[in-house]
Design a protein that fits this description.
By secondary structure, this protein is α/β, with parallel strands linked by helices. The protein is 57% helix and 12% strand. It has ten helices and five strands. A five-stranded parallel sheet has the order 2-3-1-4-5, with helices on both faces. The radius of gyration is 18 Å and the shape is globular.
Length: 203
């Protein structure tokens, strides 16, 4: 039972390609389910997890984490209720990703899967890259954005991605040494990329 992790530069088409691979191989495509599992694991709402992921590494989150201890937050929220900061999020992410990977035949999108499942037997790690201009065009086409809005989103997402990986103590997420396959989506089509991933896993 294989596990495929899809890492990507924002706008390179990782979520789209991952979904296409899952459909072709009859695998589970896990993205929203990861959010739901983390929410259940930490006893917070789904929206809280989404907010944390959007603000990964953000100044507000860091400030709150440094000012408020876990014990203080427990007293504020009441016994048995959940709590989520960046450290709790990362710990939950490790446990949730390992659990989902153990089920096999899954495609996992982003969130440091290439590190968390680095030594997981049967895991294949894929990285999608593309030049900035092509990523902006992808966002314009698939999400109906203006060019200026797409540029802003891609640039902002890259900063947040870098901040998240610092929580893993890693800043080498674009290093090909961590991956079985690196796809330059400025050079190939989505369909070709899907075929290459399926061929890798199938063989």
């Amino acid at each position: 039972m294989a596990v495929i992790t899809i890492s990507r530069q924002f706008g390179a088409g990782g979520r789209t390609l991952g979904n296409m691979v899952a459909q072709k191989m009859n695998y589970q495509f896990l993205d929203d389910q990861i959010i739901q599992e983390i929410a259940q694991h930490t006893k917070v709402t789904r929206d809280t997890v989404i907010s944390m992921e959007k603000d990964a590494g953000g100044a507000i989150s860091r400030m709150i984490s440094s000012l408020l201890s876990r014990d203080y937050m427990d007293r504020l929220t009441g016994e048995g209720k959940g709590y989520l900061d960046e450290d709790v999020y990362v710990q939950a992410l490790y446990e949730v990703m390992a659990k989902l990977a153990s089920e096999g035949d899954v495609v996992l999108i982003g969130r440091g899967g290439q590190y968390i499942l680095e030594n997981h037997e049967g895991a294949f790690h894929v990285l999608l890259v593309a030049n900035f201009e092509d990523r902006v065009k992808f966002m314009q086409k698939h999400y109906k954005l203006t060019e200026s809005r797409a540029k802003s989103i891609v640039a902002s997402a890259e900063k947040k991605r870098a901040n998240l990986y610092r929580k893993f103590g890693r800043e080498d997420y674009n290093d090909p040494i961590h991956y079985h396959l690196v796809l330059n989506m400025s050079r190939i089509s989505l369909e070709r990329g899907v075929g290459l991933v399926c061929s890798l896993v199938g063989n």
